[in-house]
UniProtKB/TrEMBL annotation:
Main localisation: cytoplasm
Protein name: Thymidine kinase
GO annotation, cellular component aspect: cytosol
Tagged with keyword Zinc: yes
First and last residue of the signal peptide: none
High-level lineage: Bacteria, Pseudomonadati, Pseudomonadota, Alphaproteobacteria, Sphingomonadales
A GO BP entry: DNA biosynthetic process
Pfam hit, one: TK
Record EC number: 2.7.1.21
UniProt-annotated location(s): Cytoplasm
Gene this protein is translated from: tdk
SUPFAM superfamilies listed in its UniProt record: Glucocorticoid receptor-like (DNA-binding domain), P-loop containing nucleoside triphosphate hydrolases
Active-site residues, as the UniProt record annotates them: E90
Species annotation: Sandarakinorhabdus glacialis
Length: 202
């Protein structure tokens, strides 16, 4: 029975790496996978639809935006060539409707769907896609990252060019290690209260 999976983590946790490894496992056995990533996240190249891991692994992927009908795209591909697995990176950027589309891919087409993304934004609010994946996914798996203090990093601090915490702004702002730091809740809170985020303890 196909399932909908949500692998969630802070930034820089290995999500894209694990996605690419999972897809490779299917493909090296001759099975066909479909990869999607958010069109807005152009760190690997504007609109190129590339999933890139910080350790250098990359793969072509279809780019989705808020208007993309993921169910329709998978149906069309599945009719042309059997799809054995759908993998979605940057799943936090999915809309509620798109999470339901992915649920249909599982329930009506019998294709497993593996999604990978953040749980919360720089203000500790759930992203829309994350909220509905937490609500609807059959399997929720946390990918663990480590704060500078050694605790599990579950929060994502947005920082400015001087490395200081940014508390206000738009939810969506594309960036990497230059713009975000994954922290434990204690250091996230301390940083927002003005503490300098540095190695070791606050
Ligand atoms: N040279 C390296 N060798 C091994 N692991 C690395 C290297 N550089 C970064 N990493 C690890 O790769 C992970 C980031 O991978 P990535 O898939 O891009 O994360 P995410 O998609 O969650 O942001 C981090 O856990 C980081 O510690
Ligand atoms: C916390 C946070 C992150 N984002 C963006 C920044 C990146 O482009 C992606 C996450 O990338 P990952 O390295 O694959 O985890 O999300 C954002 O727009 N808003 C936020 O609050
Ligand atoms: Zn910490």
């Amino acid at each position: 029975m196909a399932k909908l999976y949500f692998y969630y983590a802070s930034m820089n946790a290995g999500k894209s790496t694990i996605l690419l490894q999972s897809s490779f496992n299917y493909r090296e056995r001759g099975m066909h996978t479909m990869l999607f990533t958010a069109a807005i996240d152009d760190r690997a190249g504007k609109g190129l639809g590339t999933i890139a891991s910080r350790i250098g692994l990359t793969a072509d992927a279809a780019a989705f935006d808020a208007g993309t009908d993921l169910y329709r795209i998978v149906v069309a591909e599945h009719a042309a060539q059997t799809v054995h697995c759908v993998l979605v990176d940057e799943a936090q950027f999915l809309t509620k409707a798109q999470v339901w589309q992915l649920a249909r891919v599982c329930d009506e087409l019998g294709i497993p769907v593996l999604t990978y993304g953040l749980r919360t934004d720089f203000q500790a609010n759930l992203f829309e896609g994350s909220q509905w994946l937490l609500a609807l996914a059959d399997v929720l798996t946390e990918i663990k990252a480590v704060c500078m203090c050694g605790r599990k990093a579950i929060m994502n601090l947005r920082i400015d060019a001087q490395g200081l915490a940014v508390a206000a702004g738009a939810q969506t702002e594309i960036g990497g290690n230059d713009r975000y730091v994954a922290l434990c809740r204690r250091h996230f809170t301390a940083a927002l209260m003005g503490a300098k985020v540095q190695q070791g303890r606050v």
